[in-house]
């Protein structure tokens, strides 16, 4: 596997034996539609899977590469452990370094997922409170719609140790990034009230629900100007859906799942930690033999387990380079297609999109007809379950609680829009998937169905 021939001349070894990653793929013949269908032929048929955002997707050729790694381990585990594993992980880290413009491969660690990366960052902050390096009540600032698992991690590691939290409300639906910047600045001011110090700001690059591309570079810059100690960008959805330049973004820590939009099998994420005085205190939550040797090495051995998803990153690069424009081409087409499909749905239902096109990547929020009466989180979940079971459509639904003053909300001809669907587009999607969704919703509206009464079995 180590010596596998590179395809399309995209990733090659130079005369020092180091992996060289060319960002510009040399394309022989772009992948054809039937080949794409074959790569994803393990997907359940009959399901309009317009939710790549939740769990991503992995093509057959990458699964085959993963299987080879698994067998290589089982054939001779000791040799694999001593001679193959670490070098294989280093190659994957080197690919990532090239893709995100990091300075040094030692700034990149591979971990299971964004949740693990959040634990690494937040445990470091928690230790600052527990060891009394920080004053009690110093703060962590984050977006109100930060991922639930990250919010729970703050409770577990930071608030318990004495830190306080300021949540910044994300306005939605949105017309411009200025609205976010304004709210964020207010959040920082609140975080600094009464002489408190902001020890950490957590900024999503692409929020999960509702999905919005956040002006992360501008917010990091504001954090620096306002004297925030450390900045963590939760970019779980970023790699494979937006261009990443970690130097330009300028955060201390930046995590992205590789299993969401970068075609890796679950579970693998990279955590970038900018070389800084904080680096020696970054530790994997699972302590093993390599503790104290730096996060990338600690993370590369956390006990006996399957490391294959971390080893297939070069194979993923081969896969994406079969597409015109490589991963950047895929990103561009997904963005264009998801917008086109989103606009088509909004027009047919007489609703709206949740944010302007430049604040979307491969996912878009589409308003649902108010006649469906989505009045709670439970209603949203019911509609999602109903669409899956009765219509074969997999799409997450967001409930948007109406504001008291009704300000900023969107309306359709029958009332306030209180529910949005988050649609994704990935290379395996076709316009029929969205058409199926469009018709399902129109059918429910015509039948005068309201969410509370929908069945999910
Ligand atoms: C913004 C954000 N952060 C963190 C996560 C957690 O990712 P994982 O479940 O892979 O740890 C997600 C998952 O959707 C997310 O959207």
UniProtKB/TrEMBL annotation:
Against InterPro entries, the record matches this protein to: Aminotrans_V_dom (IPR000192), PyrdxlP-dep_Trfase (IPR015424), PyrdxlP-dep_Trfase_major (IPR015421)
Q: Which domain of life is it from?
A: Eukaryota
Question: Is Cell membrane set as a keyword in this record?
Answer: no
- Which keywords describe this protein according to UniProt? Pyridoxal phosphate
Pfam families in alphabetical order: Aminotran_5
**Residue ranges annotated for the Aminotransferase class V domain, each copy included:** 90-353
Name of this chain's protein:
Aminotransferase class V domain-containing protein
UniProt organism field: Xanthoceras sorbifolium
Highest lineage ranks of the organism?
A: Eukaryota, Viridiplantae, Streptophyta, Embryophyta, Tracheophyta
């Amino acid at each position: 596997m180590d010596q596998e021939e590179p395809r399309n001349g995209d990733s090659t070894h130079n005369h020092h034996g180091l992996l060289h990653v060319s960002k510009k793929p040399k394309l022989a013949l772009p992948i054809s539609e039937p080949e794409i269908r074959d790569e994803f032929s393990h997907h359940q048929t009959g399901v309009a899977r317009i939710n790549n955002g939740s769990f991503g997707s992995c093509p057959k050729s990458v699964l085959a590469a993963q299987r080879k790694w698994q067998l290589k381990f089982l054939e001779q585990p000791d040799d694999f452990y001593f001679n193959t594993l670490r070098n294989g992980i280093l190659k994957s880290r080197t690919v990532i370094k090239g893709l995100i413009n990091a300075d040094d491969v030692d700034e990149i660690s591979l971990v299971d997922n964004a949740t693990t990366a959040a634990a690494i960052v937040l445990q470091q902050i928690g230790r600052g409170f527990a060891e009394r390096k920080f004053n009690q009540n110093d703060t962590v600032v984050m977006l109100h719609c930060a991922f639930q698992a990250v919010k729970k991690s703050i409770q577990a590691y930071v608030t318990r140790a004495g830190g306080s939290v300021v949540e910044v409300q994300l306005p939605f639906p949105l017309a411009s990034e200025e609205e976010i910047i304004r709210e964020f600045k207010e959040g920082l001011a609140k975080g600094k009230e009464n002489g408190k110090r902001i020890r950490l700001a957590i900024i999503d690059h692409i929020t999960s629900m509702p999905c919005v591309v956040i002006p992360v570079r501008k917010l990091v810059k504001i954090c620096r100007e306002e004297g925030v100690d450390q900045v963590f960008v939760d970019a779980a959805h970023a790699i494979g859906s937006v261009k990443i330049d970690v130097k330009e973004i300028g955060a201390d820590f930046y995590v992205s799942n590789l299993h969401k939009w970068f075609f890796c099998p679950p579970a693998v994420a990279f955590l970038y930690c900018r070389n800084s005085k904080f680096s020696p205190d970054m530790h994997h939550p699972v302590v093993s033999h390599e503790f104290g040797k730096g996060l990338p090495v600690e993370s590369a051995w956390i006990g006996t387990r399957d490391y294959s998803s971390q080893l297939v990153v070069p194979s993923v690069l081969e896969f994406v380079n079969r597409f015109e424009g490589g991963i950047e081409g895929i990103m561009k087409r997904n963005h264009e297609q998801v917008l086109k499909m989103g606009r088509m749905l909004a027009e047919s239902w007489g609703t709206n999109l949740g944010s302007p096109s430049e604040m979307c990547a491969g996912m878009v929020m589409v308003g649902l007809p108010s006649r469906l009466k989505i009045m709670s989180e439970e209603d949203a979940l019911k509609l999602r379950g109903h669409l899956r079971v009765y219509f074969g459509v997999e799409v997450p639904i967001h409930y948007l609680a109406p504001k008291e003053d009704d300000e900023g909300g969107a309306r359709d001809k029958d009332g306030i829009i209180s529910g949005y669907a988050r649609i994704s587009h990935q290379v395996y999607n076709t316009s029929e998937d969205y058409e199926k969704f469009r018709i399902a919703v129109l059918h429910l509206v015509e039948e005068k169905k309201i969410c509370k009464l929908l069945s999910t079995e």
